[in-house]
Amino acid sequence: MSRLMIIGCGGVASVAIQKCCQNSEVFDEIMIASRTVSKCDALKEKIVGQQQNSGKKTKITTEQIDADDVEALTVLIRSYQPEAVLNVALPYQDLTIMDACLEAGVHYIDTANYEAEDTDDPTWRAIYEERCKRLGFSAYFDYSWQWAYQERFEKAGLTALLGSGFDPGVTSVFTAYAQKHYFDEIHTIDILDCNGGDHGYPFATNFNPEINLREVSAPGSYWENGKWVEIPPMSIKREYEFAGVGKKDMYLLHHEEIEALAKNIPGVKRIRFFMTFGQSYLTHMKCLENVGMLSTTPVNFNGQEIVPIQFLKELLPDPASLGPRTVGKTNIGCIFTGIKNGKEKTLYIYNICDHQECYREVGSQAISYTTGVPAMIGAMMVVTGQWKRPGVFTTDEFDPDPYMEALNRWGLPWVVDENPVLVE
Ligand code: NDP
């Protein structure tokens, strides 16, 4: 029986919270703390209504919190005394929430690595530019900020579990599982993220637009022979036939789990990440980028400062509202090649998730679902002690078996294909 504090109440949080409440044997008490408390209250009301019929009985409290304020957050954590904090706010809050967890002495779980909100801040920029030169990729996000907390979490006897969503998260657990059960040495990893869903809008993003558009408009990069290779945005394209979805175009992107897997998988020679995009999405994105709407630099408009990408977020459909309209499936997984018992081996582990089934279960589309379920599972691994070790870790650094079992149980069953078509 555990008490969990969940920070954020957006698309992913809504699924993670409902899944924690379905899992009331583990999470008997939760606090939903977010910037807009009315969203927390509305979700609580919905879940309390559902619990009357289901016999589940997680006790839910809600609070308003600005997670950028370490002091206020520390006070709140101390007063609620959870075993762990699940951060499903935005990557901008990762460091302040980690600081508050250390102050208050509780474990920490998140779904995405730290990203600076203000990329024009000169102190941040100097560190970023040095890192671009040293490591060879220019994404705004990387693990160095959170890996820097290793010693402090270790000394405090606390666990920080980073990136327990689907990708990053499950994709790294798939890798640890392949390594444990199928390979002596993994040589290549291709992570394929396919969304075959259709929401009927000409343009919308499936999760937070600001984070999503920043990610996909950035240069791509992959890991090869011990170093990063960076390429112009969307310049490597492949076609792949996805089980449950069909043929899709996919593009090579930089993605955070590559960094962790390159460090943790011995002998790996190449790691790439591909995501599918339709032509309409790409055309809209290019146009928005060309006119400056993806910029994070504030502009003055009629005497008021606005950040173009934040204004764009206001105009776009709220990802949380896409649920009822989205039909089709996602297919996310990893293709591995390597060696077992001296022979070459290939393997594909993937999950197929249906947007409408997710909507029927929790009122969300599959992108929030495939992230929210692993967020709950990550928190469960930590609070039940199955993945509890002092320090800062990614999901490939623990025994994958209990996590893989939990994916099957909590709505994300996976498939193992030992004869996959490889990506060229
Ligand atoms: P949303 O924008 O839907 O939700 C974010 C929530 O965080 C909102 O409720 C927001 O409050 C709250 N929030 C923002 N700033 C603060 C703050 N300073 N203090 C307290 N609460 C705050 O985002 P998503 O649900 O789509 O994404 C959540 C996280 O999941 C992100 O980090 C995203 O990168 C990650 N993600 C990870 C994936 C993976 O596979 N690993 C895939 C998809 C997403 P308000 O309601 O007031 O806006």
Give the helix/strand layout:
Elements: E1 2-7, H1 11-22, E2 27-34, H2 37-54, E3 59-64, H3 70-80, E4 84-87, H4 94-104, E5 107-110, H5 122-135, H6 144-147, H7 150-156, E6 159-162, H8 170-181, E7 185-195, H9 209-216, E8 220-224, E9 227-231, E10 237-242, E11 246-252, H10 256-264, E12 270-276, H11 279-290, E13 299-301, E14 304-306, H12 308-315, E15 329-340, E16 343-354, H13 355-362, H14 366-383, E17 391-394, H15 401-409, E18 414-417
Parallel strand pairs: 1-2, 1-4, 2-3, 4-5, 5-6, 6-17, 7-12
Antiparallel strand pairs: 7-15, 8-9, 8-12, 10-11, 11-12, 13-14, 15-16, 16-18
NADPH dihydro-nicotinamide-adenine-dinucleotide phosphate is lined by residues 7-13, 34-36, 39, 65-68, 88-91, 93, 111-112, 163, 165-169, 207-208, 211, 319-320, 371.
Molecular structure report:
- The chain is α/β, with parallel strands linked by helices and 424 residues long.
- The protein is built from 15 helices and 18 strands.
- Strands 7, 8, 9, 10, 11, 12, 15, 16 and 18 form a nine-stranded mixed beta sheet that branches. It has a seven-stranded parallel beta sheet with strand order 3-2-1-4-5-6-17, sandwiched between helices.
- α1 (11-22) crosses α14 (366-383), α3 (70-80) packs across α4 (94-104) and α14 packs across α15.
- Bound molecules: NADPH dihydro-nicotinamide-adenine-dinucleotide phosphate.
